[in-house]
Design goal:
Elements: H1 5-13, H2 23-32, E1 34-38, E2 43-45, E3 53-59, E4 62-65, E5 71-74, E6 79-80, H3 82-87, E7 94-97, E8 101-107, H4 108-117, H5 120-137
Antiparallel strand pairs: 1-8, 2-7, 3-6, 3-8, 4-5, 4-7
Helix pairs in contact: 1-2, 2-4
Length: 141
Amino acid sequence: MVFGRSSKVALLQQVPLFQALSRKQLEQIGRLADELEVPAGKRLAIAGESGHELYVIIEGYATVKAARGRTARLGPGKFFGEMSLIDGGPRSASVEAATDMRLLVIGRREFSALLNAAPSLVNNILVTLSRRVRDAEGVSD
């Protein structure tokens, strides 16, 4: 299924990461993002390998396997893959589609354009990263 421009904007408005953005900014993201459907069982990221895209889950669920055997489940509105785009390092976790999924995918170049177009996203991404590090280390606020 291919999302139309207005459909992408409507989907993006439901993603907490993007909720504070203007319609114009959402339209920019919609132009930058590719649409992807994947079947259950598809590997989306492998720990230790380089990563070149950010994934935003529209439908379905993914299983994340991080260091020390920790696992998490991500569903609609959640995203992953941002760490490799920010620091250029390898993936910190493996991610597999637990169900059939619909995703929006943003590549490295588009991610940079996105951060320039919507600087408020930087704070949202940093907050999410901080929470993930605390969860991985077993530390809570």
